[in-house]
Amino acid sequence: MSIDFDTMSLKEMRDLRTKLDRAINSYEDRKRREAMTAIEEAAREHGFNLAELTGSKPRKTGTVAPKYANPQDPTMTWTGRGRKPRWVQENLESGKELDDLLI
Fold first, then answer.
1. From CA 22, how far away is CA 20, in angstroms rounded?
2. CA–CA separation, 70 and 43 (whole Å)
3. Residue 2 within any structural domain of the chain
4. Running along the chain, 103 residues long, what does each successive block of 10 average in pLDDT?
5. pTM to 2 decimals?
6. Residue numbers of the domain that contains 94
């Protein structure tokens, strides 16, 4: 396959580059998945899982228990992580301490 760049417009060349970048990324992703599958299969054949061999710990998933509750509406809770809810801000502005909101 031969491409004559001298006869192509700038838009055509940019479109070609975009398509080529996508094809390269797709190829690399596919090869990476194939390699990972082969590694996982080899680990299983030897009686291990990949996390055991690499020393990585499985991610903990799940919910975090609420730590604070709104005194006016106990169904409104906050874990203490992330941005403070409006009701926490309002209570703090009215003179309460964060410890006053503990469950």
1. 5
2. 50
3. no
4. 91 96 96 94 90 77 88 92 94 93 92
5. 0.46
6. 68-101
